[in-house]
Specification:
The protein has one domain: Up-down Bundle (Growth Hormone, Chain: A), CATH 1.20.1250.20. About 80% of the residues lie in helices and about 0% in strands. Helix 12 packs across helix 17, helix 15 packs antiparallel against helix 18 and helix 17 packs antiparallel against helix 18. With about 400 residues, it is mainly α.
């Protein structure tokens, strides 16, 4: 069952990783400016704050949550294809609107899928399964941008969007066959009748509030969520800026997508090596902090490559350092969520956390487009500054209150 889960996870996440850079390159090719591509990427991710909590509540209610994930994959794919068909035919605002509609379902491809892991493996194997799940993100991050670069160089960014859609569709059968929930609460309408509550809608609103409350009241979840949100905003600057950095240093924007593949490869190697280290297991909270600092250093190094006008190898080094940081950061974040999430709210906490990260990423992408068009080095420095800000937030949320630790 775990192997089927991993096949579906890799396909879905690779398609997801391809969709953003593919839309970015397609918009860049169409308009000659990074602004349209950046706004398409921002639109695809901005609506996650709305979609994530609702998807999480519905997943926690569903007896077969995998089937709901499958429907979300189909809807996300349909949205991507609608944007593709509209390029050059619809106004920019309409294209961004289509991307926003697709983005509502985006958290199902990340946190929604990961939240099903306890249904696939027993509790005593969850730690190793979590590490493998994190590696699937790294594999997707490696293959996705590299595939976009290869397809875009051979054909076009539009074809890369099509390739992303094919992979998303390939993930639907594994999602459909994920195991059912071992126990499920009564249907909302029946529960409302038994409890004397006014409506299932009111019950759903309470469940949505419960997910946010669980994150806000748990010190470790709160700190990890805020830190990852601010860091992810800066990471979006790196993703938007690297195509322009590649174009500046080599004359080809596709080399920027290859830099993203270097980042993902370094993340994959780092996480794979970490799974083999048994004697030293630092707390995931500590790993989250250290990796965020290292990510800031990598972005500062990338900015140095932009201002020094090369060599391209310096940009490759910066991308590799970013991967060494990004891989453990993601693994640590998921470990904190698995450790702290109550079972009855697991889906909400994972999808809400994912949606908050994705929305923060959207804000970073929206900021990065105009900033990178003006000065890519300045954009990368802004990304590094956001990593420092993430660490400031981590430190503030780690302060002791009333003599007790905040985590």
């Amino acid at each position: 069952m775990l192997s089927r889960y991993m096949v579906g996870a890799v396909a879905a996440r690779t398609g997801d990783e391809m969709s953003g850079p593919a839309l970015l390159l397609a918009g860049l090719a169409l308009s000659g400016s990074p602004v349209l591509g950046a706004w398409l990427l921002a639109g695809l991710t901005a609506s996650a704050a709305v979609g994530g909590p609702l998807l999480g509540a519905l997943l926690d209610r569903a007896r077969r949550p995998g089937r709901m994930v499958g429907w979300c994959l189909l809807g996300y794919t349909a949205g991507l294809l609608a944007v593709l068909l509209g390029l050059g035919r619809l106004p920019d605002a309409a294209l961004v609107g289509l991307a926003v509609s697709a983005g509502l379902l985006g958290p199902a491809l990340t946190g929604g899928w990961t939240s099903q892991l306890p249904l696939v493996v027993p509790a005593d194997r969850l730690g190793r399964a979590n590490a493998l799940d994190a590696i699937s993100y790294n594999v997707a991050g490696l293959v996705g941008p590299a595939a976009v670069a290869a397809v875009a160089a051979a054909t076009s960014g539009q074809t890369a969007v099509l390739a992303s859609a094919v992979l998303l569709l390939a993930a639907v059968p594994p999602a459909w066959t994920l195991p059912p929930r071992r126990s499920t609460p009564p249907p909302p309408s029946a529960k409302a009748l038994m409890d004397g509550t006014p409506s299932s809608g009111a019950a759903l609103r309470r469940e949505l509030a419960a997910g946010f409350t669980a994150i806000a009241r748990n010190a470790s979840l709160r700190r990890a969520t805020v830190t990852s949100m601010v860091s992810c905003c800066g990471l979006a600057v790196l993703v938007v800026g690297t195509p322009l950095l590649g174009a500046e240093l080599t004359g080809e924007a596709s080399y920027g997508a290859l830099l993203l593949a270097v980042t993902a490869a370094a993340a994959l190697v780092t996480n794979a090596a970490a799974t083999r280290v048994r004697r030293w297991r630092p707390r995931p909270d500590t790993v989250l902090a250290g990796s965020t600092l290292l990510l800031g250093a990598a972005m500062a190094l990338a900015a140095r490559a932009a201002y020094a006008d090369g060599p391209f190898e310096l940009a490759v080094l910066a991308a590799a350092v970013a991967g060494v940081a990004e891989g453990p950061q993601l693994t640590a974040l998921m470990a904190v969520r698995h450790r702290e999430a109550p079972p009855r709210l697991r889906g909400q906490i994972f999808t809400t956390g994912a949606s908050l990260k994705i929305t923060s990423y959207a804000g970073g992408a929206a900021l990065a487009g105009p900033l990178a068009a003006y000065d890519v080095g300045l954009a990368l420095l802004a990304g590094a500054a956001l990593q420092v800000l993430a660490m400031v937030a981590y430190g503030l949320l780690s302060r002791r209150r009333h003599g007790r630790p905040g985590s």
